[in-house]
Amino acid sequence: MDAKKLQHFKDMLLEKRQEVLERIEQLREVALESNYKDSYGDHSGYAYHMADQGTDAMEREKAFLFLSREKKYLQQIEDALQRIELNEYGICRVCGEEIDEKRLEIVPTTRICVPCKLAEAKKKG
Ligand SMILES: [Zn+2]
Known about the structure:
single chain, mainly alpha
């Protein structure tokens, strides 16, 4: 891959990394805010309080789920950026051929080309 294209994918990945970092920050806030409400929330009315707690627990659970997903994605972005530095970006980890750039445009963190992915999916059955 030539330097210009490599730079294009690098910019794309850096932008995505920024987005993910912002989402992680927001999700952390949701998780922390739920804790805060638990301790200092509105205690007027028992039933209302119970319902409120239930929602909080669910919101927090969701936030943690998304958080771990975003962290995994962040790791994939970091790995892809590392491969750009090592000049290994866009090379299929299975067959060693260059991955189709159209695929990289859609999934810039991918490490496997379409034919190999299909072959692996078949093997798994
Ligand atoms: Zn391949």
